[in-house]
Structures are given as C-alpha cells and as structure tokens.
C-alpha cells in the first residue's frame, strides 16, 4: 500500500494505491507544517490529524510518492519518513525541456500509456495547459494560460469596479452579449476560453488527425459541459479523467 500526493498550485490531490491498483482519491487544502509533522509520526488512522480526511485503511502506508509543481510545498513534505519526489528524468517521454512541469509530464504519460499516443492533455487547473506527445512519445509541446478561476480572480483584483466571479456560481452558459457586469465577465472569459480550447484542438487534429485528447483538472467538468453545448463534435472525442497524474505515477512504478 502506498500514498501518492500531487501538489497543485491551489490544493493537494491524494491517492491511495494497493500495489499498482488505484484504490481511492481525495482532495485537501494545503496542510500546515504542524499537521505534516503529525502525519509523519502517525502509524495508525487513530493518530491522524483530522485535516487529512484519510479514507478507509487502518494502517498508514509507509511510502509517500510526491509530484509537485510548488517547490515551497515540496520542501514541507520532505520531512515525511519514506518520501519519494518524482523528477522529470524519471519520465520516459522524449524531447522534454528542463523546466516542463512534472504535472504536465505525468498527466501526458498517464494518458498516453492508457489510451495510446499521439495524445494531447488539457489540464483545466489553476493554470490551463495543453501538453502533447506524438506517436513516438516525443513531446510535441504545448501552451500555458491562466485557468478559469485565475481569469476571474485577476479581473476582480486588478480593477476598480469589477466584482469577483466565483466559478461555483457558474451553471448554464451566459448570454454572449450580456447586459449585466457579472454576465459580461462570464461571457468574455468563458466564450474566449472555449474558443481558444477549440482552436488548439483543431490545430492538434491538423497535425495528428487521429490524435487523442484527454481533459483533467478542477474545471474539467464545467468546461466539458460547455464544450458539449457549443462544439458537440469536439466534445464527443474528448475523454474526461481527473486521475491522469496518478495513472502516470502508477505507470512509472512498473517502469523503474
Ligand atoms: N474544491 C475546490 N477547491 C479549489 N478549486 C476548485 C474546487 N473545485 C473546483 N475547483 C476549480 O479547480 C480549479 C483549480 O484546479 P485544480 O484543483 O486542478 O488545481 P491544482 O491542481 O491545485 O492546480 P494546478 O493547476 O497547479 O494543477 C479552480 O479554477 C477552481 O475553479
Ligand atoms: C503550468 C503549471 C503551473 C501547471 O500546473 C505547471 O506545470 C508548471 O509550473 N510548469 C512549469 C513550466 C512549464 O511547464 O513549461
Ligand atoms: K510562480
């Protein structure tokens, strides 16, 4: 039994593995140093700090595998007894550049190993990223832009009159030509983001007509639902899967 921890820019994503089998996953906020120390010293569920909201098992897995894109958080977790931090060199993708995010590399590896290459992964997280590899598992490249939440947050924070829009408040598509401030912000951000995603997908299919596409990240469901309404032909070829990074980690385990 082993624990995997993905440290994102907004929160922590956990997975419990039994051998190579992904048993369960859950999310928590960032944890304070005191809680991490307590976790490191716990041996059974009963000792665990409540913030961890740990699921079923009664003994704690001795091994923690970390994939992090937040160096300050990685440093905090180094105190855990049997910790393994995944680095880019361990990922068998070719043509990767040294500063590529480990989350992007792992998600792409996990998706490609599961469904095959060429593969394009769209991560609708804090940042929205596109990351692609060709049939020979060479990184084709990708793109990084502010994610949905970040686009709303910057507008709210860097202007004098614009309110903060919460992604939780989004349900149906806003009117394209809006007659209120809140809907105007929603329209601007959502329609341009979806048009941008569509444009990247079409460019991907120009390169690789049979190329596969997977979408992950905290905003995956919202964006996928909007894509189904606006561009159903595109949505029908997308696979929605939140756990690509954990699949990538599991695929590495058998590799090393
Ligand atoms: N409970 C939640 N807490 C925070 N964000 C959430 C939550 N549920 C959905 N989201 C959405 O998820 C997005 C963040 O995505 P995600 O949780 O994948 O980020 P992350 O993994 O921390 O960051 P990274 O982009 O570094 O991977 C936000 O834009 C937000 O709208
Ligand atoms: C782009 C993010 C923030 C997405 O989580 C992460 O993958 C990262 O910090 N990447 C480093 C830069 C790059 O991937 O080119
Ligand atoms: K940064």
From TrEMBL:
Q: What is its EC number?
A: 2.7.1.33
- Main location, first listed in the record: cytoplasm
Annotated active site: 103
Q: Which Pfam families match?
A: Pan_kinase
One MF annotation (Gene Ontology) recorded for this entry: pantothenate kinase activity
Can you tell me which residues bind ATP? 6-13, 126
> In the record, which residues are listed under signal peptide?
none
**Keywords of this entry:** ATP-binding, Coenzyme A biosynthesis, Cytoplasm, Kinase, Metal-binding, Nucleotide-binding, Potassium, Transferase
> Which coenzyme or cofactor does it need?
K(+); NH4(+)
Localization of this protein: Cytoplasm
Reactions catalysed, semicolon-separated, are: (R)-pantothenate + ATP = (R)-4'-phosphopantothenate + ADP + H(+)
Its pathway, per UniProt, is:
Cofactor biosynthesis; coenzyme A biosynthesis; CoA from (R)-pantothenate: step 1/5
The positions annotated for binding K(+) are 123
- Record bears the keyword Cytoplasm: yes
Sequence positions that bind substrate? 97, 101-104, 181
Give, as one word, the top-level EC class: transferase
Complexes and interactors: Homodimer.
NCBIfam families, alphabetized = baf, PRK13331.1
Family membership:
Belongs to the type III pantothenate kinase family.
Sum up the protein's function in the record's words: Catalyzes the phosphorylation of pantothenate (Pan), the first step in CoA biosynthesis.
What name has this protein been given in UniProt?
A: Type III pantothenate kinase
Native organism is Calothrix parietina FACHB-288
């Amino acid at each position: 039994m082993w624990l995997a921890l993905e440290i994102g820019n907004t929160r922590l994503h956990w997975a419990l593995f039994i051998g190579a089998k992904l048993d369960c996953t859950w999310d928590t906020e960032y944890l304070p140093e005191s809680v991490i120390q307590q976790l490191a010293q716990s041996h059974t569920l009963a000792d665990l700090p409540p913030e961890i909201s740990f699921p079923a098992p009664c003994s704690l897995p001795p091994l923690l595998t970390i994939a992090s894109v937040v160096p300050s958080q990685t440093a905090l977790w180094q105190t855990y007894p049997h910790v393994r931090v995944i680095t880019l060199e361990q990922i068998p993708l070719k043509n990767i550049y040294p500063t590529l995010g480990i989350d992007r590399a792992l998600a792409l590896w996990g998706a490609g190993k599961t469904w095959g290459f060429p593969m394009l992964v769209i991560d609708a997280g804090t940042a929205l990223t596109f990351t692609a590899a060709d049939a020979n598992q060479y990184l084709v490249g990708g793109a990084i832009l502010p994610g949905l939440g970040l686009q709303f947050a910057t507008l709210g924070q860097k202007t004098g009159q614009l309110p903060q829009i919460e992604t939780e408040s989004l349900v149906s598509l806003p009117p394209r030509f809006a007659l209120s401030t809140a809907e105007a912000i929603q329209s601007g951000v959502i329609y341009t983001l979806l048009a941008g995603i569509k444009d990247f997908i079409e460019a991907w299919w120009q390169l690789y007509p049979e190329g596969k596409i997977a979408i992950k990240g905290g905003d995956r469901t919202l964006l996928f639902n909007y894509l189904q309404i606006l561009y159903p032909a595109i949505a029908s070829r997308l696979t929605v899967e939140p756990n690509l990074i954990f699949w990538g980690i599991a695929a590495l385990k058998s590799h090393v």
